[in-house]
Automatic annotation (TrEMBL):
Name of the protein this chain belongs to: Probable GTP-binding protein EngB
One Pfam family from the record: MMR_HSR1
GO cellular component term of the entry, any: cytosol
Cofactor(s) it depends on: Mg(2+)
Gene (UniProt): yihA
Length: 196
């Protein structure tokens, strides 16, 4: 129920104009179109919360949502746009790396992947950054409704195997915003990271 209180508090183009680095923060990352906005909306029970992050001009920003005075969600810019200029990509990489390395409040990353296209190059980059920063990672394999249960489960196991070489705590689960499945599982992880 606490996640339903999430409200947008502001955007930042870079770390220096982000809200003060205090309390606890959980960041959401994912390739564009993976289903990140839908997942944020589903797990907060708010049908249009993450629309803010899709507003033109705000897509390349860090968007902050307050859960309570000590806890925030951060929607990180979606990555993997095919046509972005190299300079923009560099800038994005720089910002993400700095944020993941230096943000003290950051206590975990939720990485959203389309269950049909898991572990893209961009996902691996994010995983390596989390590993480097020593951050726990929770992977949502979303759009699970698009596969038969057996196939979705196989993907889960396959991804789990491929991640066994990574030296941070990684949990993963199937999720569907459409069918609203997997919500309790992610709530449990968020509760743990947020020390509820
Ligand atoms: P984002 O770019 O990662 O924020 O992705 P969106 O949340 O905007 O979703 C991209 C597309 O996938 C939209 O057309 C959504 O309706 C669709 N989508 C998102 N989540 C699900 C899901 O769980 N199941 C299905 N079938 N479609 C989904």
């Amino acid at each position: 129920p606490v996640y339903q209180q999430a409200r947008f508090i502001g955007s930042a183009t870079k770390l220096s104009n982000a809200p003060v680095d205090q309390g606890l923060e959980i960041a959401f990352a994912g390739r564009s179109n993976a289903g990140k906005s839908s997942a944020i909306n589903t797990l907060t029970g708010q049908s249009s919360l993450a629309r803010i992050s899709k507003t033109p001009g705000r897509t390349q920003l860090l968007n902050f949502f307050e859960i309570d005075s000590e806890r925030k969600f951060v929607d990180l810019p979606g990555y993997g746009y095919a046509k972005v200029p190299v300079a923009v990509k560099k800038q994005w990489q720089q910002m993400m790396e700095t944020y993941l390395q230096e943000r003290k409040a950051l206590c975990g990353i939720v990485l959203v992947m389309d269950v049909r296209h898991p572990l893209t190059d961009f996902d691996w980059q994010m995983i390596r950054w989390c590993e480097h920063a020593g951050l726990p990672l929770h992977i949502l394999l979303t759009k699970a409704d698009k596969l038969k249960f057996g196939a979705a489960k196989n993907t889960l196991l396959k991804v789990q195997r491929e991640l066994s070489q990574v030296s941070i705590v990684i949990t993963l689960q199937l999720f569907s915003s459409l069918k609203r499945t997997g919500i309790d599982d992610i709530h449990q992880i968020l509760d743990q990271w947020f020390q509820f």
